Amino acid sequence: MNTILKEFKSVVARFSDSTAIKEGQKTITYKELNEESNKIANHLKENGLQKGEFVSIYLKRSMETVISILGIIKAGGVYVPLDPTHPVERNKYIINDTKSSNIITSENLLNSIQGMVTENTNFLLMENLKNLEHVNIEFTDDDINDLAYVIYTSGTTGNPKGTLIRQRGVINLMNYMLKEWSITNEDIIMQFATYSFDASILDTFASLYSGATLYLIDDAERMSEEGFLSVIQRENISIIPAIPTVFFNRIVNYVNERNLDIFKGVKIVGVAGELLTGDLARKFKSSIGEQIRFFNLYGPTETTAIVTCYEVPNNLSEAVFSVPIGDDLPGTKLYVVSEEGKVCETDEVGELWIASEGISLGYLNNKEKTEEAFIKNPFDENIYGGMLYKSGDLVKRLADGNIEFVSRKDTQVKIRGHRIEIAEIETRMNEIDGINDAVVVVEVIDGEKTLKGFFTSDEELSFNSIVENLKVTLPSYMIPSKLKQIKDIPFAPTGKADRKKLELLEADPVVLLKTGEIVEPRNEIEADILAAWKAVLELENIGVTDDLFDIGGHSLKIIAILSKLKAKYSTISIKDFFDLKTVENLAAKVQADAMLGAREFKKEFTQLTEYPKMAVTERLPEVETVLVTGATGFLGSHIADKLVQEGKRVILLVRGEDAVKRVSDTVKYFFNKEVSSNILVVKGDLTEKYLGLKEEEFKDLAARIDAIIHSAADVRHFGDREHFEKINVEGTQNIFELVNVNPAIVFHHISTVGVVEDLLAEGKWGLLEGTTEMPEGLSVESVYTDTKMIAEKWILDKAKENKQVFVYRMGNLVGRYSDGKFQSNIDANAFYRMLKLMILGKKAPKVLWKVDFTPIDFASEVVVNSVLKTDNSQRVYHVSHPNPITFEELIAVLNELDFDITMIEQEDYNAYILSDEMSEEVKNLAVAQLDGDGANDSNAVYDSNNTMQVLELTNIPVLNKEYIGKLINHAIAVGFIKETVMA
């Protein structure tokens, strides 16, 4: 093994002028990073730093932090990261515990740290770095067994524990990451974690070892979904080594709700800190990251950041609740050990013991805790120094060798990715004057762990005073968000506090962050909304300018608030709470909506026919070879399969290095078979010139095909215009270049009935109805639909250049007519969520709506039938069911399946599904209902009768009890719906 410095020296030699770090608009090259860190090393040595001494870094996360880390290691020191946002007492304890006589800081932080140290402390201010002399330093006495850093984790005594980590552990971890994650100097790695948290090792050293660029995301960006995602897109981030699981959950939900495509350039995402649920992993893979390598990471600070790593597959089984944490990484040996000290059998729960190259030398100045946690290896005394670490985590080894996390053995938990000891918080609470006894437990709210504290006292204590006391010694993530004063602490038969009983006991929310002065309501609307907030959040001292999420709000609370407001203020949606955040902003939105007024629904249907009517006068050539895009999607995969059944050769254009595997996985999932020999997979990218192929390869591809079915598109309904145009418009134009090379190719473009639906909704249907070509200047508000309509017009205009082009507007595609099978992300589909909501809630709204749902196998048959015809007579087709049933008829069928659903008035229905008697699952499903994805009055009927007549399709699926039963039985089979249906 090379040392950290030898590896870094090699990187500097190879990538001297490459950008090493970027922070905002500031950058530094590897050459400059080497020179600046040399200055620090030289300064420390001139001030008498001896090898193995500790040097504290008291800086905000910055470029200067990385320079300091390298400089300290170069000087033979051990770096000690302090967080200026942590309490003074905590940082003071760490400085004293490490006896740091050298501290690196900045001018603006100098005053705050001077009170924590002795008079003999040497301060190096980063502002003075430029005045230091440039030096070249050669290091010959560094060793892989030298200490690299000490990171402090929460301790049971009330004081944190300093974990001593050697270079050996860092080097072993980097060797794994660079090889297995294929990290190169061309990557841009996001630096996310604070440097007082060991996850910072992953991103920082992976970058310094590979010559990649390390992008330091600022604190504002790392605290908000919008900021985080904007950095990914703006900076072309390719690797995100470790996001806290809780924040990752927020990101996935945010992206899904807005249907954004931000992760296109990202190769790798790692998550760590909490149990990763199968639902969250599947949601990420199915709707955001099939092309992304996605890792669930696990590892204590005591064994150098991570010791296991599980790569989440695209088709993670629906049966998986807790995503495995993986298997032993190189340089690591894991044991699952029973209470009797024996290695557990497969699927037997035991404590995880870890032997590793990266094992800590123990806790600084804490012999008792070191001997408790670090023991001689009773199983393999000759590996990794003969020691192992008892993690305190309960796990089990699965049959495939992977390990699954079960729970903590003691009271140690992770909150927002930070590992803490409950005992430390309890110790600090017990130190507060007036508190006799305190117990802290964990409560899970909306999937996120929070802390609630219970205490006894002989007097009435103010929650605010307790919070202010705790702020002196504890970081914000360790302060309980709920408190409760009780008469006595309940005890279990063991004599210990009955934590299970306290977990069930409700406590009162405390406000940790507020805007300051309380602003009272200034009108009736603000008063009504604020009253709902107070009632649901159980808070009094809040005003109309307070941020909902700073005072304890979350999605379930929002639903409860909305249930109190919806009857009177019907235009407020779930999305508004996330976008507007304050009572003041919500009230302004209500007033604006009232001024616009509501459109009266006319109870009559409009037949949206396949306009423009464009005749085809030429006979089309026979088709033998077809290029299909979007073939790993629901529609594209079924079109490809249907073409193969018809004996045609099929070429699939698929993005990514794992293109072949993605096709194989898709075919296996939908059709349970291997990829046909009649299918050829070509790796390409619609957004690139020549589809990312060489020019000769592109021309050769054009010469080989008779037809193109362009099914690929970004079908999400929210996002920025530039992105949608790049995929839906420019991507279409790029694939059409094949026709310009070979004009004999017939181009079949997949679009959406949303084009005609949105025109109708905005009163513009008359501009298209009766036309023989797409009119100029048509537009709709939805960016997604508008770009699909632009692409339609661009394609259809090619008919004027004697190109053979066709457009297929697809309706709402649902499970196969043959067996009801649907795509894997069923939980994100509005139609299925609507069905589940009505089944669980036992009620449905009275609406006038012809429900559009078309079996995927029938839809693919319609498209392929047209593609293979040589005598088509029209260019625009509607691929939707020609005989849609009314919503009332759908409910009647569900009742035939014994679901007993009652239809009630829309206003009563909205109030009902948000009422207190509804389960949390129903309320969560109601979110989509409230935002317009459920059953609503609609004039639109997607007329496909001409399509069926022209294509001579007579075997139309019947939307009856048998078929709808298949749809629901599939939903049951994958665990989406729990009830049994007799179809």
Automatic annotation (TrEMBL):
Coiled coil: none
Positions of the Carrier domain: 520-594
Key words of the record: Phosphopantetheine, Phosphoprotein
Cited InterPro entries: AA_adenyl_dom, ACP-like_sf, AMP-bd_C_sf, AMP-binding_CS, AMP-dep_synth/lig_dom, ANL_N_sf, FAR_NAD-bd, NAD(P)-bd_dom_sf
Cell membrane keyword on record: no
Keyword Phosphoprotein set for record: yes
A Pfam family per the record: NAD_binding_4
Sequence similarity: Belongs to the ATP-dependent AMP-binding enzyme family.
Protein name: Linear gramicidin synthase subunit D
